């Protein structure tokens, strides 16, 4: 199955830069992956992972304003390597709505601040253009929820409609136990009788599959669907407490837990792209094994937690 988001013959695995653009993140063991956390060293490290991804055929890259210098690292890499600076050879997604405030510290009390108002959108859109050196192909409201009111904000929606009319595919990313409700509300948005939103990036994994039906509906309606956190911020990797049923599947397939988790997401018929959140080339190589695993993985169905339990656990993960 090919994806309309990707150039021909590209794998449906993309690379997210949440763990590559800033020194602190909530992935299990993230701090141990980065020997030198200075900005220059992290840029060089990010470029190394991006080079590995490109060599493997990956052509979808995801960033956000709140990912520290992720947009800057990605944009400079695209320009230096000559990889699809204009649209066509590569697909770039980014997001607005969170501001990075940790000042490059892993021990900051607050790492990012959420604001879904028009002022934030108007400030962050030109910042994204400057950092990437081009317009993103997808531009998403970062972690939209019903509680922020962004899907009722007529000024924000009108501005997003302008971006959509200019050729940028706009949409939202979702988080929290109400992902499905947020997505269904987003699909009902209208600006002058037309919904400017047509893309969603959502958390889906074998521990938290609750948005699946809503994502399938969005896909059927022509929306682009991107999956994030398929390895549950490291819980579904060798660093996590792997459930026995998953360990058995890994044994049968001779594959690592991260590869199996990503393969389970790729197996969903409504998915266009699944993001790897790898911090190192070695992690990315392990993730890429998912492309070779084909199956329905029925043994993993019973691993689902309640959405409330899953998101409570995620909220308790330490920045490191």
Automatic annotation (TrEMBL):
<protein>
    <submittedName>
        <fullName>Aryl-alcohol dehydrogenase-like predicted oxidoreductase</fullName>
    </submittedName>
</protein>
<feature type="domain" description="NADP-dependent oxidoreductase">
    <location>
        <begin position="39"/>
        <end position="293"/>
    </location>
</feature>
<dbReference type="InterPro" id="IPR036812">
    <property type="entry name" value="NAD(P)_OxRdtase_dom_sf"/>
</dbReference>
<dbReference type="InterPro" id="IPR053135">
    <property type="entry name" value="AKR2_Oxidoreductase"/>
</dbReference>
<dbReference type="Pfam" id="PF00248">
    <property type="entry name" value="Aldo_ket_red"/>
</dbReference>
<dbReference type="InterPro" id="IPR023210">
    <property type="entry name" value="NADP_OxRdtase_dom"/>
</dbReference>
């Amino acid at each position: 199955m090919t994806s309309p988001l990707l150039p021909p013959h590209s794998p449906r695995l993309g690379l997210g830069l949440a763990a590559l653009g800033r020194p602190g993140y909530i992935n299990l063991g993230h701090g141990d992956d980065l020997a030198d956390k200075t900005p220059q060293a992290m840029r060089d490290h990010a470029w190394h992972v991006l080079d590995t991804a490109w060599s493997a055929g990956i052509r979808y890259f995801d960033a956000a304003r709140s990912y520290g210098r992720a947009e800057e690292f990605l944009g400079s890499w695209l320009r230096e390597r000559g990889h699809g600076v204009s649209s066509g050879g590569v697909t770039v997604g980014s997001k607005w709505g969170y501001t990075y405030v940790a000042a490059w510290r892993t021990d900051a009390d607050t790492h990012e601040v959420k604001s879904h108002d028009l002022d934030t959108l108007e400030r962050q859109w030109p910042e994204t253009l400057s950092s990437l050196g081009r317009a993103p192909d997808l531009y998403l409201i970062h972690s939209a929820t019903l509680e922020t009111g962004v899907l009722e904000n007529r000024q924000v929606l009108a501005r997003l409609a302008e971006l959509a009319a200019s050729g940028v595919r706009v949409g939202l990313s979702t988080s929290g136990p109400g992902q499905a409700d947020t997505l269904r509300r987003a699909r009902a948005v209208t600006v002058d009788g037309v919904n400017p939103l047509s893309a969603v990036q959502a958390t889906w994994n074998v521990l938290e599959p609750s948005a699946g039906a809503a994502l399938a509906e969005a896909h059927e309606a022509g929306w682009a669907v991107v999956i994030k956190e398929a390895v549950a911020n490291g819980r579904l990797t060798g660093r996590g407490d792997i459930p026995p049923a998953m360990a058995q599947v890994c044994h049968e397939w001779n594959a690592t837990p991260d590869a199996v988790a990503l393969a389970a997401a790729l197996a969903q018929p409504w998915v266009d792209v699944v993001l790897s959140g790898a911090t190192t080339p070695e992690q990315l190589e392990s993730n890429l094994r998912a492309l070779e695993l084909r199956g329905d993985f029925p043994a993993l169905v019973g691993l689902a937690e309640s959405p409330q339990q899953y998101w409570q656990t995620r909220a308790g993960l330490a920045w490191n």
